[in-house]
């Protein structure tokens, strides 16, 4: 299937970018990290450890090579990364960012907008799908908790783009919950704050994830 051959560009080779890049490479996908310094020791060590399915180039080169683009930059650097990306028309932007205050005390965007909607505003020809923001990077490497898979909430306005992101999310072991339109990122970004508060301030630790129960 052609979709399996398509590379994924990842902007931000940090905790989230490396965890998801390693996961998708392990599923046979080609990963192109877009980095400010693709020759840095840190980035080279990452691509070496992932193996031949991953490479690192500039942000612009990475985005030019892929239709699917994961945004895994600190919120304060996200506009800069998108500005460096060049033409984003037709791209599917998977937005993992959270617009965190530097001391993790809260969100700097919210209620009447969200990071995801800001990104859609900055890249109007793209399809933005919020995903991967409500769980710690460690659990992106291992979304199974005993016999259950953590839920991953995604939202976006373009159904085909959302379906493609859903497939990528399920492929690495999450249960996907379609959380509706992109404006519902206004709900998902505060949910990430709850995860941060529970994990880092209330003593639950990073091995926690949200799960939808049904009957
Ligand atoms: N960590 C988590 O558990 C977690 C979970 C869910 C969502 N998130 C969200 O995901 C995003 C990434 O978090 P993280 O923990 O992975 O951050 P991180 O470990 O600090 O990594 C951020 C990466 O972004 C890169 N970067 C910064 N500015 C850039 C630019 N202009 N162009 C390209 N790359 C740039 C950094 O590279 P250099 O500085 O070396 O250039 C670094 O590799 C954040 O918005 C965060 O809120 C994090």
Question: What does this molecule look like?
Answer:
With 215 residues, the chain is α/β, with parallel strands linked by helices. The chain has one domain: NAD(P)-binding Rossmann-like Domain (Rossmann fold, 3-Layer(aba) Sandwich), CATH 3.40.50. It contains nine helices and ten strands. The strands form two sheets. Strands 3-2-1-4-5-6-9-10 form an eight-stranded mixed beta sheet, with helices on both faces. The protein has a two-stranded antiparallel sheet with strand order 7-8. The radius of gyration is 16 Å and the shape is globular. The protein starts with a helix and ends in a 14-residue tail after the last helix. The relative contact order is 0.14. Residues 11-17, 34-36, 59, 72-75, 77, 80-81, 84, 96-98, 100, 133, 136-137 line the site of NADP nicotinamide-adenine-dinucleotide phosphate.
Q: What's the arrangement of strands in the largest beta sheet? A: 3-2-1-4-5-6-9-10
Q: Shape, please?
A: globular
Report the radius of gyration as a whole number of Å: 16 Å
CATH fold descriptor? Rossmann fold
Total domain modules: 1
Listing every helix as H and every strand as E from the N terminus to the C terminus, the arrangement reads: HEHEHEHEHEHEHEEEHEH
Which small molecules are bound?
NADP nicotinamide-adenine-dinucleotide phosphate
What percent strand? 15-25%
Number of beta strands: 10
Major sheet summary line: 8 strands, mixed
Content-based structural category: alpha/beta
CATH architecture designation: 3-Layer(aba) Sandwich
* CATH hierarchy class name: Alpha Beta
């Amino acid at each position: 299937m052609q979709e399996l051959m398509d590379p994924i560009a990842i902007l931000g080779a940090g905790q989230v970018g490396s965890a998801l890049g390693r996961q998708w490479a392990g599923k046979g996908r080609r990963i192109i990290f877009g980095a400010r310094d693709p020759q840095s020791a840190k980035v080279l060590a990452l691509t070496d450890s992932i193996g031949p399915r991953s490479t690192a180039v500039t942000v612009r080169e990475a985005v030019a090579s892929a239709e699917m683009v994961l945004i895994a930059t600190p919120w304060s650097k996200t506009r800069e990364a998108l500005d460096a990306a060049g033409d984003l028309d037709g791209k599917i932007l998977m937005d993992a960012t959270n617009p965190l205050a530097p001391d993790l005390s809260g969100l700097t965007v919210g209620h009447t907008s969200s990071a995801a909607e800001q990104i859609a505003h900055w890249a109007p020809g793209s399809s933005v799908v919020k995903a991967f923001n409500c769980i710690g990077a460690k659990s992106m490497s291992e979304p199974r908790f005993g016999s259950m898979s953590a839920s991953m909430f995604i939202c976006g306005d373009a159904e085909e783009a959302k379906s493609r992101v859903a497939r990528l999310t399920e492929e690495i072991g999450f249960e996907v919950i379609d959380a509706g339109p992109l404006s519902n990122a206004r709900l998902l970004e505060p949910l990430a704050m709850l995860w941060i508060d529970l994990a880092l301030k209330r003593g639950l630790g990073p091995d926690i994830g949200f799960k939808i129960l049904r009957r």
